[in-house]
Amino acid sequence: MDLPQLARRWMHALTSTAYIPLSHAEIEQALLDSLRELPESPETVAKRLVSLHATGPESLSATIEVLSPAFELSLLARLSSAYAQAMRMDAFDQQEQIKVAIVRAKQRVERTLKVSQARFREVFDSAALGIAITDFAGRCVEANDALAEIVGLESGADLTGRDLTDFYHPDDLGVLGASYRGVREGRVERFRDQRKLIRADGEPVWVHLAVSVLRDADGEPTHHVTMVEDISELHLLQRSLDHQLLHDSLTGLSNRQHFVTQLERRLDSDPITLYHVGLDAFSVVNNGLGHDTGDKLLKIVAKRLGKLADDKSAVLARIGGDEFALMTISDNVTTTVEEIQDALTEPTFVDDHGIALSAGIGVVDRPPAFATAAELMRCANAALRQAKARGKRQWALHDPHDDARRRGRYALAASMPGAWEHGELRIVYAPVHDLESRELLGAVARLHWDDLGHNDTMALADSTGLSLPLGRWLLREACAQAARWVAEFGAEAPTLHIALGALQSRDEDLVADVKRALDETGLPPEGLRIALDISSVLAGDDNAVVLHDNGIVTALDGFRGGYDELAVLTEVPVRTVITRASAPSRDSPLRQAMRDLVTTVHRLGVRFAVDDVHTVDDAEQWRQAGADGVIGLLPALTADEVTDLLRAASPPRGAS
C-alpha cells in the first residue's frame, strides 16, 4: 500500500475514534506528512497526533492496527510510548489550566462568585480527567464524575467525604503519602506519578496522577488537587508490545535479546552451563512436509525443552530458526545432553506424520567470570558448528585454545576481500618438470597471500564465497601474463597451467569464463592447461568435456586412484591426472601398488603428474614409480622473476 492510500485509511480510522476540528483533506495531508516522518522521528508524529486532538480512547489502537502491516513493531512501540508521553504532557497542560482556573475562582469568589463558580463547574464537570479536591487528611471535598467512573462509582458525589487513599494500592500508600506531604510543605510544587488504583469492585486500574495544592487569598495551602488519567489500555498495550519485543512469536519462548539480558544477569552469580541446541536436518521437515508442519514441530520441541528447563530451573530461549539456547546452573553436562536428545528423539505425530529429531549441541561449561554474554553466545555457537561438523546427534564442549585458532582463521578469511582490494594477493608460478628429460613443461599459476599458499588461500576464499570471483581474476591475470610471454618468447614461452578448486570446477559459467579470458588476452588455447577438481567430474559435471571440445587441454586434480576415478578416465577426455600423494619409498609395501596404478593410468592414455614435490629424492622416487611430471620441485616465482629467467635462457624473438 502506498503512503497516500495508507494516510487516507489512517484518516478514516482516526476520525471514527475522535473529533478532529479539521477538514478531511487537512487531516489526510497531516497524516501523510506523519507517515513520511515516522521512520525517522516517531516522537514528532506522536506529538502531531495529540495536537490534532486524535486522543480518543480508541485512537492509539486504531493507529497501531492501520500501521502495523507497513511498519516494524519496534517503531510502533516507540510511537506508542511517545504518544503516551505526549498525552501525558497534554493532560498535564490541561491540569495546569484547570489549577489556574480553580485558584482564580477561589480568589475572586466574593466579587464574581456566580461567574467563577459557573466557569469552575464547567471545567470541573466536563474535564476528561478525573479531579478530586481533598483536605490535608485525604478526605474528598469534591470530585467530578470522570474520577468516579475511573474508580467504579456512579458519580462524583459518591466520593464526597471518602478518603481518596482508600482507592490507592496498599503497596503505594507510603510513597504517595510522602509525595503529598512534599507538595503540602512546599518542598516541591507538584508531583506526577504512574500508579495502580483499586476500583470499588476490586479490579486494578493503571493511572497517571498529578497532584498540586490550592491556596487561599493569602497564599496559604488549603487543599490538595489530584488529577487522575486512566491509562489502563495504554499500559496493557505497552506490556503487550514489550512482550512481543522480548519473546518469540511462534513458540512464546524468550527471544535472543531477552535471553542475552538474562544471561548477563546470571554471570555475576552462580556458575552456569550454556547449551546451544541446533536441530539436525530440520530443513528436511520443512522441505518435505511443508513449513506449517515445521512450525508445529518447533512448538512441540519448545514445549518439551521447556519442560526440561522447568525441571532444572533453567532459562530457555529460541534464538534462531531451528536453534534454541538453554542456560542452567552448572550441572552434569553429559546427563543434560542426553536428556535433551531423549526429549527430541521421542517420535511425535504432526499432521499424521511420525517425526523424530536429534540435535547438535554446543556447550560452554563454567565460563570465566570476565566473559561477556555476547562472547559466551559466540563460543556456544562455535561449539555447535563443531558438533554439526561431526555429524548428527553430536555435541561438543567449547575449547578455548581451539576456538582461538579458529577465530584467527575466520578473521583472516573476513579480511581477504580488503587484502585483495589492496593488492596483497599475488600470483606466483610453480614450475612443472618432466621427470625423464628434466625439461620445463610449463608453470602453474597459484595464489600467494602473506604466508599462505594457494590451497590455504582458496580454502579461506571458499568460506566467504570469494573463491569464484577470485578464481576468475586468477584466470584472467594469468592468461594475460602468459600471452605476454608468448609475444616475447614465442615457442620458448612456458605453457600456463591453472588448477581450479571444487566450486570453480563445477561453475556453470566456467567455459564462458575461460573463453572470455583467452579472447581478451589473446592467449592461444594450446597455451593453456586447465586442471579440474576430480570431485566435480565424479559428480557428473561436464565442464571437462566442453573445455576439450573447445580445444583446451584438461587434467584432473586431486586424483587418488579409486575405482570410480579410474572409470572416469575412460569416459572423460583428459590429458593428465594430478595427485598429491607422498612419494613411495623403496622399502614401502605400497611402492608396487603405486607403480601398478601409474601403469594403469598410462594404459588409459593419460599422463600421471604429482604436485607438492619439493626434493630431488622424492622426484626420483616418483620417476622410478613411472610418474611423468612433478610440480613444485623449484620454488614458485613471481611473473617478473619468470620473465628474467626466460630472458637469461634465450634471447627475445627477432634477436640476431
Short description:
Residues 270-400 form the GGDEF domain. This protein is an alpha/beta fold.
Which word captures the global form?
elongated
CATH topology of the largest domain: TIM Barrel
CATH class of the largest domain: Alpha Beta
CATH architecture of the largest domain: Alpha-Beta Barrel
Subunit arrangement of the protein: single chain
SS elements, strand count: 21
- Let me know the largest β-sheet: 8 strands, mixed, barrel
Low-confidence runs (pLDDT<50, min 5 residues)?
A: none
- Biggest sheet, strands in spatial order? 13-14-15-16-17-18-19-20
Helical run tally:
25
Fraction of residues in helix: 40-55%
Radius of gyration: 40 Å
- The fraction of residues assigned to DSSP E strands is 15-25%
For the record, give the distance between the C-alpha atoms at the N and C termini, rounded to a whole number. Answer: 79 Å
Overall tally of structural domains: 4
What structural class do the secondary elements suggest? alpha/beta
The CATH homologous superfamily of the largest domain corresponds to: EAL domain
Could you report the average pLDDT, rounded to the nearest whole number?
85
Domain PAC: 191-243
Domain GGDEF: 270-400
Domain EAL: 409-652
Protein name: Diguanylate cyclase
